[in-house]
Amino acid sequence: VQLQASGGGTVQAGESLRLSCVADRIRFDDYRIGWFRQVPGKEREFVAAISKYGASTSYVDSVKGRFTISRDNAKNTVILQMNSLKPEDTAVYYCAATLWMGWEETSRYDYWGRGTQVTVSS
Asked: Are 101 and 109 in contact (CB under 8 A)?
């Protein structure tokens, strides 16, 4: 199983980035997909998640109204559209796949991709 996150970069506050997570070697629509982020010295933080067919989503309060998660099962891809970025959004972002409920908990996830760095300057 392989998850590949991409799309990170360095932007100014107020700008946007679009992160992609592409999965390989899994039955993609069996899995809920989550995005997490981590800064050095802190625990990995839940950002957003989407249900198997996209009917349900969840966001951490700090990104509600700015980030949107979506998926295209035909392309084994989940997108995290990040608008109105703030310096506090700076982190390494990871996507992960889970068969289970409780998708805000890192321990629930079966597979993790490598992260992509997002840096937002003020």
From this structure: no
Which pLDDT belongs to residue 115? 95
Are 101 and 27 within 8 A, CB to CB?
A: no
Euclidean distance between CA atoms 22 and 56, whole angstroms: 19
Distance between CA atoms of residues 31 and 24, nearest Å: 12
Q: pLDDT tens digit string along 66-114?
A: 999 999 999 999 999 999 999 999 999 999 999 988 889 999 999 999 9
> 10-26 pLDDT, tens per residue?
999 999 999 999 999 88
CB proximity list for 107: less than 8 A, separation 6 or greater: none
Query: Are 120 and 13 within 8 A, CB to CB?
Result: yes
Nearest to 71 by CA among 25, 117, 28: 28
Residues with Cβ < 8 Å from 42, sequence gap 6 or more? none
Quick one: CA torsion of 60, 100, 114, 86, rounded to 10 degrees?
Answer: -10
